[in-house]
Amino acid sequence: MTNKIKQKYGPWALITGASSGIGAEFANQLAGQKMNLILVARREERLKALADKLSTTFNVLVDIIAADLTKQEDLQRIKTASNEREVGLLINNAGAAYPGAFLKQSLEKRQSVIDLNIKAPIALTHHFADKMVERKRGGIIFVSSVAAHMGAPYIASYAATKSYLLSFGTALGCELDKHNVDVTTILPGPTRTEMMEMEGVDTSKMPDMFMEPSSVVNVGLNALGKKTFVTPGAMNRMMGFMMSRIFSKHFAQKMFGGMLSKSMDKSLV
């Protein structure tokens, strides 16, 4: 694998939600392209273990920042801690869904989805994009979801935030294109990650639906600078097309909600 991403965007990438799943896979693939990394997540021990592995395997520099992106003071700490690094690639990956019927979980948890999935990436993007525009180069990736195409039962707040990211990311790409800053939004479908299991989704019940993080990340990195948004996986692209173009919204929502509920803990439905 060449280091074309490093050549195009610069020496450092910052990845949120980097301790597992898609975020950890972004770290692995970018380290393979000799990018130095700033890894951000809540679990410090997981970050340390990943940083040690990547720095040893790929001979790159890896900084870690243990932070809760729903807290303003932690967002400010990320900006301050990265001031001495030329961050040319920002991966807004951190997110949460908390699947389940809207009233089955607290209002605070539902609002935290908005804080993490929308407010945090907006704050970090505003900070780092400003520096990218000054340097006349940079790249930004938003991790949205195929659920962004419609309101999705049992992940209503999550789908709404991912719809926001899709709209925002494609619009921002138009604004920043003249400054030589690339913006791509990835719309993964169901992906086999630790987050899915932690949030009560049993990926073994419908194994054919779930992609591996490595495939999702590979598609996303290859799309950067070429496409404003991309949906990894032929099945997910077909699902997105059918739900947004073929079926009525009501039918698509019923079908999606039924599929999701089958893989969830029944206490959440």
Notes on the structure:
- With about 270 residues, the protein is an alpha/beta fold.
- It has one domain: NAD(P)-binding Rossmann-like Domain (Rossmann fold), CATH 3.40.50.720.
- The chain is about 50% helix and about 15% strand.
- It contains ten helices and seven strands.
- A seven-stranded parallel beta sheet has the order 3-2-1-4-5-6-7, sandwiched between helices.
- Helix 2 links the parallel strand 1 and strand 2.
- Helix 2 packs across helix 8 and helix 5 runs parallel beside helix 6.
- The radius of gyration is 18 Å and the shape is globular.
Briefly, what is this?
With 269 residues, the protein is an alpha/beta fold. The protein contains ten helices and seven strands.
